[in-house]
Write a structure and sequence with these properties.
Layout: H1 15-38, H2 49-68, H3 94-108, H4 111-128, H5 142-160, H6 169-185, H7 190-207, H8 213-218, H9 223-240, H10 261-266, E1 272-279, H11 282-293, E2 296-304, E3 307-314, H12 317-327, E4 329-337, H13 338-345, E5 350-358, H14 361-369, E6 373-376, H15 385-395, E7 397-403, H16 410-422, E8 426-429, H17 435-443, H18 451-463, E9 466-472, E10 477-479, E11 482-484, E12 489-493, E13 496-501, H19 504-516, E14 522-527, H20 533-546, E15 551-556, E16 564-568
Parallel strand pairs: 5-6, 5-7, 7-8, 14-15
Antiparallel strand pairs: 1-3, 1-4, 2-3, 9-12, 9-16, 10-11, 12-13, 14-16
Helix pairs in contact: 1-2, 1-3, 1-9, 2-3, 2-4, 3-4, 4-5, 5-6, 5-7, 6-7, 6-9, 7-9, 11-12, 12-14, 15-16, 17-18, 19-20
């Protein structure tokens, strides 16, 4: 059953208060989601700020519930309690609760607004979940502690944004922190501080149109700021038991008119939004910020202690992902095209979109540049149907062509398609068994033709592409081509081991000879991250020497891709 918020005793700042706050914040953002989406005009009018804030808060709430409910699962056993005995019933501390809350927001942050919200919660956790210090005069009590937490939250959010702009949720959070500090300095309770922060945020929100011209022209307040108000209202309610006024903050429900031409021109910017989690050191992240800042705008990097959430708007999504690879280990990579988002902002659906599952960061960037919504998978991992369904929804189209990219994903893709059809989306799953078949299908995709003809053409192109993959054997085993030893290079053609070799080059040449023996017009090579360019040059020369009429194209698969993928059309 979902958690039912419990009334808190006045000024009680503990794990149960955090649980109540989280549950109320999810509910408040859920109620306000459509209103906030409707006024989303900055930094991109993509009508998703309310949804992104809600999904971020929902992720934070799930992580908090798992911690407070004692869910350990894959995270390990319960920690020993007094006397060395594991105690699954020991209540979580305030520090454990706020850290779990902030971590859940970090790993589940969506969009620019969700990423900033995650950093705000991390700032709160840094104070409420930090090591206790000897308080100075006037610093005792939960009210003062909460005020300090809100101040740290606003400061850390400002620091996370490469180029802060006034009139945004940063401004609203800062005003809230100042009001909370004043209440805390006056010896107010935690509830008093939360109420002051809530009122300060509401007042600052009403002023945002005067600080940001795009808001003034559209006749709205800042959408992200509305989310901050909702979250702070939930905090006050959790600590006081009093519910904020039912009336929306002035301007929150104002419908957005079609923006005038100057506003539309301002929205001409980078074409893609790139988001990923990143495991990296502080020093590497500092260099990453500089590199990404030169690639695009709306750069927000939040987190710490080795785990970060990176958000940026760019024209070259592959370069943004590659910057993450240089800095550390990026994963959960999401690339969205703003053309689709802006159509959604106008209440329009694209007629047709493609969703592609790809096994490499370079391939993800390549498919995104071709207009596809991508789902990146790492070796040994399979996406859930919910992840594919999310990608279909992000594509925001009436018709979707889904490219699963592997035989093992066809059932998952079919389940996602069935759920999408229940949402009124027409979905066709093309049974691609390799990324190179997906590239072949994308090459003939015609978004302006009829759906049925497009699906037939893409299916035919994929089916006419033979595929191969080179992999390194991990152990001695029996294969369809004989016995292989650990370290041998395996050449798989259409999913079966056809060649066993000692080196990458000679195995690739043997695979190509077999594949081209039955004809072909185009060879596609997708190189893995550790494979030198010299291999591609060698294979291109090999094809040209023996098959003069066959063309060769080469791509970089990027991190997580196989050593070599080969397609022959």
């Amino acid at each position: 059953m979902p958690y039912e918020p419990q009334p808190q005793p006045p000024d009680e700042l503990d794990a149960e208060a955090v649980r109540t706050w989280s549950s109320l914040a999810v509910a408040a953002l859920g109620r306000a989601r459509e209103d906030i989406d409707a006024i989303n005009v900055y930094p991109v009018a993509d009508a998703d700020t309310g949804t992104n804030l809600y999904l971020t808060a929902e992720s934070a709430d799930r992580a908090l519930a798992e911690t407070l409910n004692g869910a350990v699962g894959a995270d390990g056993p319960d920690l020993p309690g007094p006397g060395g005995v594991a105690d699954a019933t020991a209540p979580a501390s305030l520090a454990e609760a706020v850290r779990a809350y902030a971590h859940g927001a970090l790993v589940g942050a969506r969009g620019n607004s969700g990423t900033i919200l995650a950093q705000l919660l991390r700032g709160v956790a840094d104070v409420l979940g930090g090591e206790p210090e000897e308080p100075g005069p006037g610093e005792r009590g939960p009210g003062r502690l909460l005020a300090q937490a809100l101040t740290r939250a606003a400061e850390s959010a400002y620091a996370a944004v490469a180029h802060p702009v006034e009139g945004t949720m940063l401004t609203v959070a800062t005003a809230a922190a100042r009001a909370g500090e004043a209440a805390g300095a006056a010896a107010g309770t935690a509830a008093d501080v939360a109420r002051a922060a809530y009122d300060g945020a509401r007042a600052a929100l009403a002023e945002t149109p005067g600080q940001l011209a795009v808001l003034s022209r559209a006749g709205v307040v800042d959408a992200g700021g509305c989310g901050v108000v909702a979250v702070l209202g939930a905090l006050w309610q959790a600590l006081s038991g009093q519910e904020p006024a039912a009336e929306p903050v002035p301007g929150r429900a104002v419908p957005v008119p079609q923006p005038p031409e100057p506003c539309a021109q301002e929205q001409d910017g980078p074409a893609y939004e790139v988001i990923y989690l990143l495991e990296a050191s502080d020093a590497a992240v500092g260099e990453l910020r500089t590199r990404l800042d030169g690639l695009g705008d709306s750069l927000v990097v939040v987190g710490g202690d080795g785990l970060w959430n990176v958000h940026v708007h760019v024209d070259d999504p592959g370069a943004a992902v590659e910057a993450g690879v240089v800095a550390g280990r990026p994963y959960r990579i999401r690339i969205s095209h703003f053309g689709d988002e802006r159509r959604r902002a106008r209440g329009e659906r694209a007629q047709r979109a493609v969703v592609a599952v790809v096994p490499g960061e370079g391939l993800a960037g390549l498919c995104a540049e071709a207009g596809a919504t991508t789902v990146l998978v790492r070796p040994g991992e399979l996406p859930a149907a919910a992840e594919l369904l999310d990608a279909v929804r992000r594509a925001h189209a009436r018709e979707v062509v889904l490219l699963p990219g592997g035989a093992e994903l066809r059932a998952v893709a079919a389940a996602a398609a069935e759920q999408a059809r229940a949402d009124g989306v027409r979905v066709a799953v093309i049974p691609t068994r390799s990324a190179v078949q997906g590239l072949a299908a994308l090459a003939v995709h015609d978004p302006d033709g009829s759906f049925d003809e497009d699906v037939v053409a893409m299916t035919s192109a994929a089916g006419a592409t033979r595929y191969a993959e080179l992999a390194v054997a991990e152990r001695r085993s029996f294969t369809s081509a004989g016995i292989c030893q650990a370290g041998d290079v395996l050449g798989l053609i259409d999913g079966d081991v056809a060649v066993i070799g000692s080196g990458l080059t000679e195995t690739a040449e043997a695979v190509l000879e077999r594949m081209l023996g039955s004809g072909g017009e185009l060879v596609t090579l997708v190189l893995g991250p550790e494979v030198p360019d010299a291999l591609a040059e060698r294979l291109e020369a090999y094809v040209q020497h023996g098959h003069l009429a066959v063309d060769t194209v080469t791509y970089r698969g990027g991190r997580y891709s196989a050593p070599l993928l080969i397609g022959v059309e």
